[in-house]
Write a structure and sequence with these properties.
By secondary structure, the protein is α+β, with helices and mostly antiparallel strands. Helix content is about 30%, strand content about 30%.
Amino acid sequence: MSERSDPLAVIASVRRAAAASDGHDPLDEAADLHLKHRGLDGSQVWLADDQGFALRRGAELDLVVAPDSRGNGLGERLAAQSLTDDGPVTAWSHGDHPAARAIADRHGLARARELWVMRRSADVPLPELVLPQAFTIRSYRPGDDAEILRVNAAAFANHPEQGALDKTGLAERMAEPWFDPAGLLLAEEPDDTVLGFHWTKRADDHLGEVYVVGIDPAAQGRGLGRLLTLAGLHHLVAAGVGEILLYVGAENTTAVHVYSGLGFDHHERDTHVQYLRGTSGT
């Protein structure tokens, strides 16, 4: 351990190295935004020789080791330091790594959920977008925030992460460099009631993302999910991206079926795993 190390500097350095090696940020969006806007407030952090860190925000644990230092026991050392209590813990392995499975087993965390990354090439032709007369799809306008939050809360009432989105969280995401109002699509009725939304994202010029698709439960059964998804795909392709990805729970067979029908595929290497301890069902 290096007591003189700046935790935020170590976290940033290890994240950069891991992202360059693994092809993705080892922290999820919630952790990234917390560090960006609140630093280490409300968090605990453990460092391993400036080559790794464990970060806990309540029950949420992130543990990352720099690629050049993997296989030397640093991950287990950080796990032992950060998992001394018996309380609930939620941890993600961004990739179904054997080392993560071993650490989870050793510390009593059970495999609970798989999150799939599904991808499609922008070169694959898209179905034509044909909208019924009952509603329209348009881009975000200032003043839409309250309706987006209302639909989001209803659509994701049983989703602990997305369902917790509030005014502050929405503003933080809209302040990100990737935010494009034209890529936040809303379906609405003639009386301006928002039925659902598709928030697209462009991580860079090549890569687009189906960021969030939320449908008001009161509007379910009208084919809105597929139509909004398709509208967002047309927007991303027109913007010039070469590939589009999305994240979906493996257990959400209905959504997987819709996305597969729109040309998305899942490969085993694109599987993220959630581990839980001391929560319902574990």
